[in-house]
Design brief:
30 strands, disordered N terminus, single chain, alpha+beta, 506 residues, 4 helices, nine-stranded mixed beta sheet, seven-stranded antiparallel beta sheet, elongated, disordered C terminus, Immunoglobulin-like
């Protein structure tokens, strides 16, 4: 067999040497001892994770030397480290004394490479006792299943049922059934606790609520939750009615409550001391704060929820504290106005309170509160980001408002001046345009007037020429008339002095 290092070879040679000596000298004892080799690890592992495999050699007799090999499939497992020789999977061991040992353990770490089942076995197994007698050895093996995350989750149990449910000393109504989720139980007056016992159907499931549970007068709700291995939950409910022969029923803001009569069922808030008052002839546990002169009593709703209430002459009001990093306030209504702020309703610690803000989206509030520690009423700033209260400084806010107004006036003045400048520019521009238009109109009027005058001059010349022409025509006409008259007169003259043609011609 091929060894992985010089150290392993030396151990092997020593083992062989001891064997030869044993053969030469003969057996010292004649009985045959036995040993066993076990292989153990997780049976199921996720792919990509590391699994630790333990190989243990043990015997009821002393062991002197041994050798073995852990065989595995390299397609599924990759050896990353071991306590065997050369950090490998081959084991050789020799005890340096005659006393021997009775067990030896080796560990191997593998990284999982492939899903499926793979088997680890022991090979090349030889074991001798401390007298160098070969021992009978029984070798074990181990099968590991490599799975994906989804396969692991699918393998989880979905069983979230109870196998049993009971209350010590009492009987539930109806009788228990794993599919029945709601039960009723009535206990005597003065009962302060009950012992609930529950057992899951699946050992891998977990149960909460199965323990000693405190109860008080009236109706109490006890929930027993079963969580299956895969995370699914189922809730079994027990409605425990603690008999109260003379309950004190009150109504606050339209909700019905019962006054708590036992001190063990009501704990005072911080900064309050335990006290006692009388209501309807009963001594009622109360809590008192002398700084703010508040007396609190405990009220219980029908579902068993316990709250604190301010009690004053048979009047009840819900008590809520708004807690900052260093202050505890009872926030009150404020009927006055705060400069620069508007009134809103906002949620603080889950309770709606009247607050003042600069705008609807503002992150800081101003509230009117009663300081539980000092008993003083005042205005406080509330930082919604850090959830802290600080005393409201009205002078500072007024100065800031004045400064803001000054800035506003400066901005308005600057804006007004800018606006006027823009109007002037527009006016100058419009005036310039108007002047240009007027000049153009005047120029046009001058040109039109000049054109008319020119036309008028041309018209006079034409008339004069026309008159001259007409006069010339009249002269020609007159000349023609005169000529005709002379001709007629000449003709008449010839007619008088010459009768014949010839004479006339002459």
């Amino acid at each position: 067999m091929k060894l992985s290092s010089k150290g392993v070879i030396m151990k092997k040679l020593k083992l062989l040497l001891i064997s030869l000596v044993s053969l030469m000298l003969g057996p010292i004892v004649t009985y045959a001892a036995s040993a066993s080799v076990s292989v153990s690890s997780s049976s199921q592992i996720l792919i990509g994770n590391t699994v630790t495999v333990t190989v243990k050699l043990s015997s009821s007799s002393a062991i002197g030397s041994w050798e073995m090999q852990l065989n595995y499939d390299k397609k599924y497992l990759q050896l990353t480290s071991s306590t065997a020789d050369d950090n490998g999977n081959y084991i050789v061991g020799v005890m340096p004394t005659d006393d021997g040992i009775k067990s030896k353990t080796y560990t191997f770490k593998f990284k999982t490479l492939k899903t499926g089942s793979t088997k680890l076995t022991i090979g090349s197994l030889v074991v001798y006792d401390n007298n160098m007698n070969e021992m009978d050895v029984d070798a074990g093996s181990k099968t590991i299943k490599i799975i994906t995350q989804q396969e692991l989750e699918d393998s989880y149990s979905k069983d979230n049922n109870l196998k049993s449910l009971s209350v010590e000393g009492y009987s539930l109504t109806p009788a228990f059934n794993k599919d029945t989720l709601s039960y009723n139980l009535t206990v005597p007056e003065g009962t302060t606790s009950i012992n609930v016992k529950a057992t899951p159907s699946d050992s891998k499931a977990s149960v909460s609520g199965d323990d000693e549970v405190k109860v008080s007068e009236g109706l109490n709700t006890v929930n027993v939750v079963v969580r299956a291995e895969n995370g699914s939950e189922k809730t079994y409910t027990i409605l425990v009615n603690v008999i109260d022969q003379n309950p004190i029923n009150v109504s606050v803001n339209g909700t019905s409550y019962t006054v708590i009569k036992l001190r063990s069922n009501y704990t005072c808030p911080q900064l309050y001391t335990e006290s006692e008052i009388e209501i309807n002839g009963f001594k009622i546990p109360a809590c008192y704060n002398e700084k703010i002169n508040y007396t609190l009593v405990g009220l219980k709703k029908e579902d068993g929820t316990v709250i604190s209430s301010i009690y004053d002459n048979n009047e009840y009001a819900l008590y809520e504290e708004a807690v900052g990093t260093s202050l505890k306030l009872v926030i009150l209504d404020y009927d006055k106005k705060i400069d620069g702020l508007n009134k809103y309703q906002e949620i603080i610690d889950g309770v709606s309170y009247p607050v003042f803000k600069a705008s609807d989206n503002a992150k800081n509030y101003v509230v009117y509160g009663l300081n539980v520690l000092t008993g003083e009423k005042d205005l406080y700033n509330y930082d919604t980001i850090n959830k802290t209260f600080t005393l409201y400084d009205s002078d500072l806010m007024n100065n800031l408002n004045k400064l803001n107004k000054t800035y506003l006036y400066v901005i308005l003045a600057f804006g007004g001046g800018l606006f006027l400048a823009i109007i002037c520019l527009f006016s100058m521009n419009a005036s310039k345009k108007k002047t240009i238009k007027t000049n153009l109109e005047l120029k046009k009027m001058v040109e039109e007037k000049k054109e008319k005058e020119d036309n008028k001059k041309v018209s006079k010349k034409d008339k004069k020429k026309k008159k001259v022409k007409e006069e010339q025509k009249e002269e020609v006409k007159d000349k023609e008339v005169v000529k005709e008259e002379i001709k007629e007169e000449t003709k008449e003259f010839y007619d008088i002095f010459a009768d014949d043609k010839s004479k006339k011609k002459r």
